[in-house]
Specification:
Length: 87
């Protein structure tokens, strides 16, 4: 096992030189607030301090979308996205 430090933010593709279908991605962030959607596309990010944020999506086959979200103290905020295929 080899340790690798991801000291850049964004996506790092892990590709195979032999098999084109073997591909994985590591996506690194500058903060601990992220979520992976469930099979129906639902997600939730807990413990976000009140404030204004830009929420960004990432998917290997879908276009990136971002949306401004305001989190108020003691309330939950909702952000829905409609994602389209990358060209
Ligand atoms: Cu391979």
């Amino acid at each position: 096992m080899k340790d690798v430090l991801f000291d850049v933010t964004g996506e790092t593709p892990l590709l195979c030189n032999v098999h084109a279908e073997m591909a994985g991605y590591v996506v690194s962030f500058e903060n601990p607030y992220f979520a992976i959607t469930d099979k129906d596309g639902n997600y939730s990010i807990e413990g976000v301090p009140p404030g204004k944020y830009v929420l960004k999506t990432w998917h290997e086959k879908l276009k990136k979308v971002s949306q401004e979200v305001t989190v108020e103290a003691g309330k939950s905020a909702t952000a829905n996205f409609e994602l389209k295929r990358r060209r």
